[in-house]
Amino acid sequence: MPTTNTNSHGPADHGHGSHDTSDGSNESTALLPSFLRGEIAHEGESGRHGFHPRHFITVSYKSSNVVSQYVNFLWPFVLLAIIFRYALPSHHLWIFGLAYVGMIPSANLLGFAGQEFAKKMPKVAGTLIETTFGSIVEIILFVVLIVKHREPVEREDGGNGDEGNLIPIIQAAILGSILTNLLLCLGLCFFVGGLRKTTQKFHAAISETGNGLLLVAAFGLLIPSAFYSALKGETTIIKSSLGFVIAETKFTPEILQRDILKISQVTSVVLIIAFGCYLLFNARSQHSVFHEVIETDEHGDLDREEDQARMRYTGTETTVALIISLIFATLLLIYLVEQIEAVVESGVPDQFLGLILLPLVEKAAEHLTAIDEAYDGVINVALYHCLGPSIQTALFNGPLVVIVGWILHKPMDLNFEIFMIVLVVLGILVVGNFLRDGESNWLEGVLLVIVYVIIAIASWYYPNPDVATSNGIEGLAASTGSKNVTIDRALLKDLLAMANLNT
Question: What are phi and psi of 386, to 5 degrees?
Fold first, then answer.
């Protein structure tokens, strides 16, 4: 690419350093040295210093696009959620609903502040940082859920004792986050992008790398579930209701659960290492390729002039926005988690809550950003905002909550419901098929959204873990109050007949 003088904003850029790329020390060099030198990209400069309340409020309100601007009208729900939480704590569904809606502007501000921070960095570094900030809400959600988790206990009144068991919801939320990004967000990006341009073309460096990493991540997430499914029938300690032992071996359900937990913990460490390699690959090995792709997309942005004319945060204002949004997002997520039991008791299934509802709200900011970029014709950046968070969830955020559970001595593992993990693998394969030709259109977007809607419908009717489970004996144990495993019906009849003869 020919070099150009990027210092084109006149006096407003003085004091921030020159950005003449002719010396090869700026965007054309590898990421890490430039990042450590603290160079600021000209697109993110505000021409101001310090903190100015009026400018801060104006920039926050106008946000990055029209949709995000309208989202800011939802801020009163944040205040109402806080008031209801302390003034009317018994109104659980109201608190959940208000906090759920209030999460949207909070996540939007966090995403916008992340964008502003990213614009002050070299382009590839900025894109990686922006994606990371977009996933902070998800990390907070997972950590709050695992901290609030309580071990199921047997109850004397015949209840299942499953209250406070949030691990199934965490597992569903991990997979739901991946599905939401790959099917809903990417589908909407293809659709809105196709409304302005018949066909949008994207670079193979982003689509192929992203899809390959997702397949590897899906393989890593699938292994503990497949391991459990293959061996759960081999645990043959069986005690009848009459009290005598029918069969006994050394391979018990408890040993299998312990092995699954260890496999999940080690797999999580390996997946996090893979995520580090992915970051290094983007930052060093393929920096010039990704930089060229992003640079080309930016020059093709249909709203480029309008975006460049927008007011910017100063560095101080960016920090303040990040702190404010993180505080509100954390509070609202805590309120959401506190009301989950009441929401489930009201009739919302666990799996629908984790797979659909929670990912929708915690990914709201990322989705708005990606859809806006696709509408502006910046399809490669939009594609990265769909694939990047999915990769981070599979390789980092999900494994991170397993490690946090390990530290807190809570049995968080990667033993997902087979139904759920199959949905993720099929979703990755569907998206990979659409990405193969390097082009997208509005019809492909509609099809991806339709697949997501079908999954949402199925998850609504999928039984809660305490009713039925396709990948474990926990449901049976909870519903019967014992650790029995399934016995063949003919064998059970013979055993009952023997018991009657003895009596």
Answer: -90, -45
Other beta carbons within 10 Å of 365: 32
Q: State pTM to two decimals.
A: 0.78
Give the model confidence (pLDDT) of 436-454 as tens digits. Answer: 888 889 999 999 999 999 9
* Mean pLDDT score across all residues of the chain: 77
In the structure encoding, which two tokens stand for residue 18, read together? 């020159």
**Are the CB atoms for 107 and 362 separated by under 8 Å?**
yes
Angle at 125 between CA 120 and CA 129, to 5 degrees: 80
Q: Which helix (H) or strand (E) holds 245?
A: strand 245-247
Q: Which two tokens stand for residue 118?
A: 């990213």
What pLDDT is stored for residue 87 in this prediction? Answer: 94
Q: Give the CA distances from residue 430 to residues 215, 381, 425, 457, 491, in Å, rounded to whole numbers and listed in that order.
A: 12, 20, 9, 18, 44
Q: What is the mean pLDDT of residues 238-255?
A: 59
Sign of CA dihedral 197, 202, 272, 283: negative
Instruction: Please check the confidence at residue 495 and state whether its pLDDT lies above 90.
Output: no
Instruction: Give the CA-trace dihedral at 215, 416, 181, 61, to 10 degrees.
Output: -140
> For the ranges 240-249, 342-351, 409-418, 478-487, which has the lowest average pLDDT?
478-487
Q: Is the pLDDT of residue 69 over 80?
A: yes
> Where does residue 157 rank: exposed (0-12), middle (13-18), buried (19+ CB within 10 A)?
exposed
**Rounded percentage of the chain residues whose pLDDT exceeds 70:** 69
Concatenated DSSP letters of 257-308: HHHHHHHHHHHHHHHHHHHHHHHHIIIIITHHHHHHHHHHHHHT-TTHHHHH
Task: Give the Cα separation of 372 and 66 in Å (integer).
Answer: 9
Answer for the pair 389, 363: CB distance below 8 angstroms, yes or no: yes
Note the residue count of the chain: 503
Residue type present at position 361: V
Alpha helices in 408-488 (DSSP H): 418-435, 442-461, 474-480
Interatomic CA distance for residues 472 and 260, integer angstroms = 11
In whole angstroms, give the CA distance from residue 441 to residue 407: 46
Between CA 190 and CA 338 the distance in angstroms is 36
Residue 399 and residue 394: Cα distance in Å, rounded? 7
Q: Nearest 10 degrees: CA dihedral of 184, 321, 376, 205?
A: -70
Confidence tier at 357 by pLDDT (50, 70, 90): very high
Distances (CA, A) of 484 to 243, 329, 416, 473: 11, 43, 21, 8
Q: What CA–CA distances, in Å, run from 293 to 123, 207, 377?
A: 10, 12, 13
